[in-house]
Amino acid sequence: MTVPMAPGAVARARETAEDVYRAWGINRAHPVMGPALLILSELVANSVRHAATASPQATVTYAAGADVLAFAVHDRHPHQPDLVEFAVAGGGLAMIAELTAELGGTCTVRPDADGGGKNMWITLPL
């Protein structure tokens, strides 16, 4: 799903996540959904806040398997956050790192092949 870097992007990404995961049998009451939606919201908000000058839109990818829920937020801003640094830096990215780790999940930064953007991938066990 593509969202413009504008107000409403976070709400649209969350609503779409709820719809997609519900269609795949993972409803809002599942214990991982609340934290997953919080993490997704923070990633989209960070893209809107920090990447809008270089990226007019963000792409949100949703995925799930029998025992995992995953999503990614992609923007074309070239900055690649250092996962170790942001885990201790405080703020939204630290919250993402801490919550993901507490849930037994992973957070990965995958740079675009041309170095001009990145995907922030989150996986959470179900």
Automatic annotation (TrEMBL):
UniProt GO molecular function: ATP binding
Record Pfam families: HATPase_c_2
Domain of life where this protein originates: Bacteria
Domain Histidine kinase/HSP90-like ATPase stretches: 4-103
Keyword annotations from UniProtKB, A to Z: ATP-binding, Kinase, Nucleotide-binding, Serine/threonine-protein kinase, Transferase
Record carries keyword ATP-binding: yes
Amino-acid biosynthesis listed as a keyword: no
Protein name as it appears in the record: ATP-binding protein
The species this protein was found in: Streptomyces fildesensis
